[in-house]
Amino acid sequence: MKRKDYINWDAYFMGIAQLSTERSKDPNTSVGACIVSVDNKILSVGYNGMPIGCSDDEFPWDREGEPLDTKYPYVCHAELNAILNYTGGDMKGSKIYTTLFPCNECTKAIIQKGIREVIYKEDKYADTDSVIAAKKMLDASGVIYRQYNPIGKDITLSL
What we know:
By secondary structure, the protein is an alpha/beta fold. It contains four helices and five strands. It has helices at 9-20, 78-85, 104-112, 129-141; strands spanning 32-36, 42-47, 95-100, 117-122, 144-147. The two termini are 30 Å apart.
């Protein structure tokens, strides 16, 4: 008889996105993303971090100050990293699991790549212009978005 306490697909893929946050060097907001094909195969993962060749130790991680002294002009978001990390062919019809609702810039890339569903864990910036614009674009393009529904199971990994 098979196990009955296995996790569902949403929990599995959100778990991968959450695990990806552990690679981020951002001291304030670690974000992870996992892109999944229509047949539930992981296509790519990403986390927020500096572009390749830009040292995590030399570029700023601050959230406040002069614009060029903050992380914002430099950091690549998790969703965009997952898209850029993908080395396969088509992403049409895929889903993206992300620990934070995507910004307007990542949303543009999500729509352009043909990703049809966004499953997010948190939406703590829902009232910002960036997320309002993102939702407006998702609605206009027919991309579904929904908040992840936790299953209430804790899993501990020993690494």
